[in-house]
Amino acid sequence: MSNKEKLAFSRSNYIMMLVGIGVLAIGFFIMTLDKEDYGFGFLGITLGPIVVMTGFIVEFFAIFHKSKK
After folding, report:
1. Reduced to 3 states, what is the DSSP secondary structure of residue 63?
2. Who contacts 45 (Cβ-Cβ below 8 Å, separation ≥6)?
């Protein structure tokens, strides 16, 4: 058994996971940029959560993506 057979995910899965984590971080950062009281502006209540949800969707696909091998 080689080392590649022992890994749970392929290289593309790990890359997609890193991209998803990056998108999540960007989404949370966008929410902190809102200047309205308690984050009730466009960035804190609309754009930031949409970007965060996109990050979670990327993570979902990264976990369940099967390699063609």
Report:
1. helix
2. 34, 39
**What's the rounded Cα separation, in Å, for the pair 13 and 4?**
13
| Rounded Cα distance, 16 and 36, in Å | 33
Structural element, H or E, at residue 10: none
For residue 9, how far is the Cα from the chain centroid?
Answer: 17
Tell me the two tokens of residue 14.
């790990």
Domain boundaries, the chain: 10-43+58-69
> Using an 8 Å Cβ cutoff, are 68 and 19 in contact?
no
Mind listing the pLDDT tens digit for each residue in 37-65? Answer: 988 999 999 999 999 999 999 999 999 98
| Residues in contact with 7: Cβ distance below 8 Å, sequence separation at least 6, in sequence order | none
